[in-house]
């Protein structure tokens, strides 16, 4: 817990130094599915252009937290602020204490600021790599086809697949498919990228190429939250490491907390994954 308090002090210091607002603020967030209380008061800040790695055992609420940030689920309590905007609701009433649900269009606009990559690549099987990356810009973003194609080629080149434009998912390795999924998210020009165990479904020999692409996108300045069991990657790439268990942040801080875990639960978790 002391780690978490240090973290917010650091973030405040950072804000004073850089004048930057956090890209994401999560404040007192709870999520329940019926009687199942999955997130029990999460507080977290992510600064622009930084990488936050979320570690934790299965069932600890990591995916649920990402899904709340991206409004794939609605939170039960607390607030999530992305790019300075409260997500999902607008404040109403004289003191701004009341909340009113935003309409679908406003929520879609907020969601468009965030790109998400899942464990399973979820590519359209009947579309080529190029078709998959062009799909959302053309049909959601209403970008003219020729422009979307040019942009999609650029994004596929960015993830090292400039020579696989016309391949179908079934003709690509898992690592290549996941890189297409990353290009597809980037093609919407998100301000923030969320990765939910992006390498967990891959054969071990394909993990490295996907992590390398994520690392490169991070180096280009993208704000990222990455749920991962790749401890080496977290230590190397993340500026902030968060360990969740049982729906709470047990420990958080710089990547050095991986080498010096304070809590028993984090120590035990690291023993199981390292
Ligand atoms: P993690 O990603 O850390 O493995 P999850 O966020 O997926 O954890 O899940 C946390 C808990 O919430 C689990 O017990 C899971 O079964 C439960 N859960 C997740 N999504 C739902 C849902 N849509 N309905 C009911 N329970 C859910
Ligand atoms: Mg998960």
TrEMBL record:
<keyword id="KW-0472">Membrane</keyword>
<dbReference type="InterPro" id="IPR017871">
    <property type="entry name" value="ABC_transporter-like_CS"/>
</dbReference>
<protein>
    <recommendedName>
        <fullName>ABC-type polar-amino-acid transporter</fullName>
        <ecNumber>7.4.2.1</ecNumber>
    </recommendedName>
</protein>
<dbReference type="InterPro" id="IPR003593">
    <property type="entry name" value="AAA+_ATPase"/>
</dbReference>
<keyword id="KW-0813">Transport</keyword>
<dbReference type="GO" id="GO:0015426">
    <property type="term" value="F:ATPase-coupled polar amino acid-transporter activity"/>
</dbReference>
<dbReference type="InterPro" id="IPR030679">
    <property type="entry name" value="ABC_ATPase_HisP-typ"/>
</dbReference>
<dbReference type="InterPro" id="IPR027417">
    <property type="entry name" value="P-loop_NTPase"/>
</dbReference>
<dbReference type="InterPro" id="IPR050086">
    <property type="entry name" value="MetN_ABC_transporter-like"/>
</dbReference>
<keyword id="KW-0378">Hydrolase</keyword>
<dbReference type="Pfam" id="PF00005">
    <property type="entry name" value="ABC_tran"/>
</dbReference>
<keyword id="KW-0067">ATP-binding</keyword>
<dbReference type="GO" id="GO:0016887">
    <property type="term" value="F:ATP hydrolysis activity"/>
</dbReference>
<keyword id="KW-0547">Nucleotide-binding</keyword>
<dbReference type="GO" id="GO:0005524">
    <property type="term" value="F:ATP binding"/>
</dbReference>
<feature type="domain" description="ABC transporter">
    <location>
        <begin position="24"/>
        <end position="270"/>
    </location>
</feature>
<dbReference type="InterPro" id="IPR003439">
    <property type="entry name" value="ABC_transporter-like_ATP-bd"/>
</dbReference>
<keyword id="KW-1003">Cell membrane</keyword>
<dbReference type="GO" id="GO:0005886">
    <property type="term" value="C:plasma membrane"/>
</dbReference>
């Amino acid at each position: 817990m002391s780690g978490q308090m240090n973290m917010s002090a650091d973030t405040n210091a950072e804000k004073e130094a850089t004048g930057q607002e956090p890209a994401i603020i999560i404040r007192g967030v709870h999520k329940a599915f019926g009687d199942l209380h999955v997130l029990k008061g999460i507080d977290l800040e992510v600064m622009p252009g930084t990488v936050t790695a979320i570690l934790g055992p299965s069932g600890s609420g990591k995916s649920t937290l990402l899904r709340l940030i991206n409004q794939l689920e609605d939170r039960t309590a607390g607030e999530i602020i992305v790019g300075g905007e409260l997500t999902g609701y607008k404040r109403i009433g004289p003191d701004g204490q009341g909340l009113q649900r935003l309409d679908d269009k406003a929520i879609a606009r907020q969601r468009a600021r965030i790109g998400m990559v899942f464990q399973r690549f979820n590519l359209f099987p009947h579309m080529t790599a190029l078709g998959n990356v062009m799909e959302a810009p053309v049909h959601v973003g209403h970008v003219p086809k020729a422009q979307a194609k040019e942009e999609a080629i650029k994004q596929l080149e960015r993830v090292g697949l400039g020579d696989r434009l016309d391949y179908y998912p079934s003709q690509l390795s898992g690592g290549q498919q996941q890189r297409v999924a990353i290009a597809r998210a980037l093609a919407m020009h998100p301000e923030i990228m969320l990765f939910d165990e992006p390498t967990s479904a891959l054969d071990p020999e394909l993990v490295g190429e996907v992590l390398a692409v994520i690392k490169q996108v991070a180096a280009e300045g993208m704000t990222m939250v990455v749920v991962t069991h790749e401890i080496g990657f977290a230590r190397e790439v993340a500026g902030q490491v968060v360990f969740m268990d049982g729906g709470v942040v047990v420990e958080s801080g710089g990547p050095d907390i991986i080498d010096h875990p304070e809590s028993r639960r984090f120590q035990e978790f690291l023993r199981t994954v390292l």
